[in-house]
Design a protein that fits this description.
- The protein is α/β, with parallel strands linked by helices.
- The chain contains 10 helices and 9 strands.
- A 9-stranded mixed beta sheet has the order 4-3-5-6-2-1-7-8-9, sandwiched between helices.
- It starts with 8 loop residues before the first strand and ends with a helix.
């Protein structure tokens, strides 16, 4: 079996309890993988707006999801409100295939999903199918980006944004830091701007000095560049498989 990443030391940065599929795929390619959790996900400090949106979900024409975590948080809010069945009356959109997969995992249909997993790309996909009288619900991270919301508002669409979850930096395991210092990674993967920021804040830039940095998409690549971190490769789609392919490009050119 030709394994494209044999012996390559790869650091996967992630929120807690995520990226298992990516780690398995990298290991199947022969990589030595260290997974470093950098973010903790929490419910919103004030759960009432999310609960109210779930209770009255049928009043919206579209629900737009920007991340798998938003999908999980909103579906749980629907379950608690006893209104899961009402979601069938609403059209659903997702930012990228990972988020669409999370929606479909609940047996739901995604009506709009751009090839490129960014809010700007989803805005482009939605702008021709939305009318000024449409109501759009956007369950999102408290600190999530605003370009999709702002674009929809500029069209005259009524947008209700509610905090579905929030992320805070996780305490970095001292053993993981010692492992990074003793055996620096050859490749570091980033799957979100927030994770890149948490890495610089909690770990520093030293492990990146001689590593090739790979981003899951253009938004994350831009965030890394703004942090002064050169990006060696960007995944063509925001999926674990495409991120593995981007890693191979970064390593082998």
């Amino acid at each position: 079996m030709d394994r494209r990443l044999d012996g390559i030391r790869i650091l996967v940065t992630r929120p807690r309890e995520r990226a298992e599929e990516l780690c398995f795929l990298l290991e199947d390619e022969g990589a030595e993988v260290l997974s470093l959790p950098l973010l903790e996900l929490h419910p919103p400090e004030d759960p009432r707006p999310l609960a109210s949106a779930a209770e009255h979900v049928q009043r919206y024409h579209w629900v737009v999801f920007a991340s798998p975590s938003a999908v999980e948080a909103f579906l749980e809010a629907l379950r608690l409100a006893g209104t899961l069945d009402r979601l069938s009356r609403v059209k659903l959109a997702a930012v990228g295939p990972r988020t669409a997969r999370a929606v479909e995992g609940f047996g739901l249909k995604v009506e709009a999903e751009p090839h490129e997993g960014t809010g700007a790309a989803l805005f482009t996909a939605l702008r021709d199918v939305l009318g000024p009288d449409d109501d759009v619900l956007l369950p999102a991270a408290e600190e999530g980006r605003r370009e999709l919301e702002d674009g929809l508002r500029d069209l005259g669409v009524r947008v209700t944004r509610v905090t579905a979850y929030r992320s805070t930096p996780a305490a970095v395991d001292p053993e993981a830091l010692a492992q990074l210092a003793a055996s620096p990674p050859q490749v570091v993967l980033f799957a979100s701007p927030r994770t890149a920021e948490a890495f610089v804040e909690g770990v520093g830039r030293e492990p990146l000095a001689f590593a090739k940095v790979v981003a899951i998409g253009p938004t994350t690549a831009t965030a890394l560049t703004q942090l002064g971190i050169p990006v060696a490769a960007v995944a063509e789609r925001p999926t674990p498989e495409a991120l593995v392919d981007a890693t191979v490009r970064a390593v082998h050119g």
